[in-house]
Amino acid sequence: MRRYGKNPDEDDIRVRPNRKGNRPRTHIRPKHEDAEDGMVLTVDRGRLTVLVGDRTVTAMKARELGRKAAVVGDTVSLVGDLSGDKDTLARIVRIGERRSVLRRTADDDDPFERVVVANADQLAIVTALADPEPRPRMIDRCLVAAYDGGLSPLLVLTKSDLASPDTLLGAYTPLGVPFVVTSREELETGDAADRVREQLDGRVTAFVGHSGVGKTTLVNALVPKEKRRTTGVVNAVTGRGRHTTTSALALPLPGYRGWVIDTPGVRSFGLNHIDPSRVINAFPDLQPGTEECPRGCTHDSHEPECALDAWVVAGHADPARLDSLRRLLSTRNRREGD
Predict the structure, then answer these.
(1) What CA–CA distance (Å, rounded) separates 235 from 259?
(2) Which pTM does this prediction carry?
(3) Which of 110, 113, 144, 252 is deepest in the core (most CB within 10 A)?
(4) 142: burial class by Cβ within 10 Å (0-12, 13-18, 19+)?
(5) How many whole angstroms separate alpha carbon 75 and alpha carbon 40?
(6) pLDDT single digits (tens) 7-55
(7) Is pLDDT at 200 greater than 90 in this prediction?
(8) pLDDT for position 155
(9) In the 8-state DSSP scheme, what is residue 307?
(10) CB 68: neighbour CB atoms within 10 A?
(11) Quick check: 116 and 86 in contact, CB under 8 A?
C-alpha cells in the first residue's frame, strides 16, 4: 500500500524534525585549501598557541579531528582569524605527519601512552650529579624512548661542582651518547649555556629530567628573554624537587638557529608502549648480526640462539655495545627502582 501520493515531492510528505537543529552528519570533510601552516608552541586546557609566520595565534582543535590531539612541536594547518589579535581564535583543521615522537606512559602498567613532544630532532636528558642523586635507570628509560621515537639523545650533566661525572659517564661511553657537563657557577657566568647551545644549533631539542636537576635553570640560561619559574628546592627526605614547569613550551634559541622545548619534570618514565624490537635500530653496528637470530628473538643474554654473541666474538662489534643494548632492552621489563 502506497503511503504517499504518486509525486514524491508533494508537500504532504511528513519529514521527521531534527531536534538538535543541526545539519545531518557527513563523512565528506572540507578540504580547507586556504588553511595556513604553523607550529604548536604550547597547549593549555584545550587552547593551543601556534606560531604562524612571525605571529602567535590562539587556536582550538576542530571537531572534525575527533580524538586526534595536537602536541607541542606539531605542524598544523589553521583557518579562521589568524591575526593573533587579543580575543581572537583560530581553528586547527589538520595535523601534519610527525617525523619523530617522544612518548611515555605514566608507569609500566599503564596501557595509555602520552605523546609529550612531536617533531623534535634531539632529546636532552638533564641529570644532576648530586642534590638530587643521579638515577641511571631513569636515564636508560629516556634513552629507550628516544631511540624508539626517532630522536638523537644528548646527556646534560649538571652540578659537577658537587660530584664527579666520571662514574656516570663511564656507563654511557659505549653507547656513543654525546654529553655536556656543567656546574652551577658556569650556569651563572653563561659558559655552560654556550657549550650546550653548540649541541642545539639548528635542531629542535626537547629537554627532559627530574624536578630539581636544574633543567629549567638551564633553559632560562639558553633563552634569557623567556624566564620560567625554577624549583630551587629539593626535598631533604625524598631527594626530589617540586614541579614548577606544568606544561611543555617551545622556545626559539637566540638567532632562530633552533628550538628548545622545556617539558614538565617527571617522577617516572613508563615504557609500556615501547616495542623492544625497535631499540636495536639505534645500534647500527649490531643490527646486521640479528639477521641470523630466530624469529621473535629478544636479544637477551639468556636467549640460547641469539646470534649477537657470535657477531661480537667475530669482531664485528665491541662487547660493551652488546652489554649496553641488553641493559636498555631489560629496562622496559624492570621497574625504575629495581
Answers:
(1) 31
(2) 0.80
(3) 144
(4) buried
(5) 7
(6) 555 455 455 566 666 655 555 566 788 899 999 999 998 899 999 999 9
(7) yes
(8) 97
(9) T
(10) 10
(11) no
The CA distances from residue 2 to 7, 8, 12, in Å, are 11, 11, 14
Instruction: Mention every residue, 6+ apart, whose C-beta is less than 8 A from residue 296.
Output: none
Choose among 172, 103, 154, 113: nearest CA to 327: 172
One-letter identity of residue 296: G
Which sign does the torsion angle of CA 194, 199, 203, 205 carry? negative
Radius of gyration over every alpha carbon of the chain, rounded to an integer in angstroms: 25
Q: Which residue has the cell 617525523?
A: 99
The three cell numbers locating residue 189: 657566568
Is the Cα torsion angle 134, 137, 143, 146 positive or negative in sign?
negative
End-to-end CA distance of the chain: 77
Residue 177's contacts (CB-CB under 8 Å, 6 or more residues apart) are: 143, 153, 154, 155
